[in-house]
Specification:
The protein is mostly helical. Helix content is 65%, strand content 2%. It contains eight helices and two strands, in the order αααααββααα.
Length: 197
C-alpha cells in the first residue's frame, strides 16, 4: 500500500502530522534509492566476474577465485537481505505510529503532545491487525494510565445546548460567511461552531 496524503488524512492526521510523516517517508525512500543504486552497480559487475570465473575454470587456480567470488556474493546478498529487513521494519513502525496517534486522538490527547509521546513509546510489543492495533482496548487503557494527565478536558456550564438549537434550521458555512454584520456573523459562527473545526 502506497503512503499517500489521502491515506494519512483518512487516518485522521492533521496537515502538520501528514507533512511530518511525508517528510520522514521521503527521507527514507531517498536513502533506500541510494542503496538500491549501489546494489545495482554491484550487480552490473557480476558479468565480468562470471567471465573471470570462466577463465579460471579453463586452467587457472579457479578454486581460490571461486571462493572469493562466493564470499563477495554472500556479502552482497546479506547486505540486500538486511536492507529489505530494515525497510520492512521502518514501514511497520510507521504504520504502528500512525495507528497509535489515532488512539491518542480518541483519548483526547492534544496533537501538540503526540510527537513527544510517540518518541517515548516502545512499539516493539505492539502488533497490528491490518491498519489497526490488534489489542486496541489494552493500548487505550495504557494511554489513559500513562498519558491521561495530558488529556484535554472540556468544562460545560449549565445545560448542554442542542446542536443545532431547536426551532432553528442550521445554517451552512457559506450562509454564515455571507452575513455582512460582524457581530451577527460572529454570533452565527459561535452557534454553529461545528462547521468551523
Amino acid at each position: 500500500m502506497a503512503l499517500t496524503r489521502k491515506l494519512l488524512k483518512g487516518m485522521g492526521l492533521t496537515e502538520e502530522q501528514i507533512d511530518s510523516v511525508i517528510d520522514a517517508h521521503t527521507e527514507t525512500v531517498d536513502a533506500l534509492k541510494t542503496q538500491i543504486n549501489n546494489y545495482k552497480a554491484d550487480a552490473e559487475k557480476l558479468p565480468s566476474v562470471q567471465k573471470e570465473l570462466d577463465g579460471y575454470k579453463n586452467g587457472t587456480d579457479w578454486k581460490a577465485e571461486h571462493d572469493k567470488v562466493k564470499q563477495d556474493y554472500d556479502k552482497v546478498k546479506q547486505e540486500f537481505d538486511n536492507f529489505k529487513t530494515e525497510v520492512a521494519g521502518k514501514e511497520s513502525l510507521a504504520a504502528k505510529q500512525a495507528a497509535f496517534r489515532k488512539l491518542l486522538a480518541v483519548e483526547n490527547i492534544p496533537d501538540k503532545f503526540h510527537d513527544r509521546i510517540v518518541k517515548m513509546t516502545d512499539f516493539d510489543a505492539v502488533e497490528m491487525d491490518g491498519d489497526a492495533i490488534r489489542d486496541e482496548a489494552k493500548v487505550r487503557e495504557n494511554i489513559k494510565t500513562e498519558w491521561g494527565e495530558y488529556a484535554a478536558t472540556v468544562e460545560t456550564k449549565g445545560d448542554k445546548p442542542e446542536t443545532p438549537p431547536s426551532g432553528k434550521a442550521q445554517m451552512t458555512k457559506a450562509e454564515i460567511l455571507a452575513i455582512k454584520d460582524t457581530a451577527e456573523r460572529q454570533k452565527a459562527i459561535a452557534d454553529n461552531l461545528n462547521l468551523f473545526r
